[in-house]
Amino acid sequence: MTRIQDPETIRTLLSWAVSTLKRADIEYPQSDAATLLSHALSCDRVKLYADPDVTLQEIDIITGKKLITQRARRVPLQYITGHTEFMSRNFSVDKRVLIPRPETEVLVERALDMVKSGTLSKTGLTIIDIGTGSGIIAISLAIHLTTCRVYASDISKESLEVAAINVKNLEVSERVNLFQGDLFDAFDGKLCKGSVDLVVSNPPYVTESELSCLEPEVRDHEPVTALVAGEVGLYYLKRIVNGSPEWLRPGGYLILEIGETQAEQVAQLMVQSGTFAGIKIFQDLQKRDRIVSARRR
Question: What order do you get walking across the sheet with 126-130 strand by strand?
């Protein structure tokens, strides 16, 4: 068995890092190792590979090994670096919030497509984002729809602290308002009912039985309250469907992210409410049902 040389240079530290992550069954050991060592050394990945024989300071070696060890324990990469990319922008994240998924971009894109097509007005939209977490949906909509006003809620004070950081860093403080509370209760006395053009949400939708089957990064590190929604995963989706009509104007829209097996159930909830029409289901890039939208009658 070949012994890996003790890390002294970028090359030997990277070799040690990749080997360590492989042993921990990390899916992308080379990529994760490069990302974490770039973060530890405050350089980009190009420099990491351009000068592999640079001798490292002891503090850099210690820092790099610490980050790799965290990842080997299945701590999510994004929590270690403290940031992630969503719709080509950098967002702060940590253990207080769910890590944004690429699938959620489909929800934002659906809303933007509705504006482009004229289904929703191009100016002066009032938008509600339920369960905002790190604020990615609210902030992304505010960036792309420069005249909209977004009211975002979350029951978690800790999540809203992260969202506030992102609102400030991405310079949308004048158009994104954060409120703590349970779903729509957060807006009582702050927003007129029946005046909202669009309600969006990526609520918890994992079932209690599914939680144990998730990857360790998700199951053991991400906030359970942002993932699990009862025995069948519909607890929050049902409440949002039933609560939206009171806030939406006639002709306003509801757009929800869902679990890949929940589309028909959520569509049926909308039908049963008696207040929605034009129900549509959209798929993510993996061709899985991911978004349900409907218009308030």
Answer: 176-180, 149-154, 126-130, 196-201, 248-257, 289-296, 276-283
Q: Does a structural domain hold residue 81? A: no
- What is the span of the domain harbouring residue 69? 10-73
Q: Report how many domains make up the chain.
A: 2
In a domain, 85, yes or no: no
Provide the CATH number for the domain around residue 269.
Answer: 3.40.50.150
Contacts of 56 (CB under 8 A, 6+ apart): 7, 8, 9, 10, 13, 41, 64
Residue range 249-285, pLDDT digits in tens: 999 999 999 999 999 999 999 999 999 999 999 999 9
Contacts of 145 (CB under 8 A, 6+ apart): 112, 115, 122, 125, 127
Residue type, 135: G
Question: First-to-last CA distance in the chain?
Answer: 69
Condensed to tens digits (0 to 9), the pLDDT of residues 37-58 reads 999 999 988 889 998 998 999 9
Q: Does residue 191 sit in the same domain as residue 260?
A: yes
Domain annotation covers residue 82: no
Q: What angle do CA 94, 164, 183 make, to 5 degrees?
A: 90
Are 69 and 177 part of one and the same domain?
no
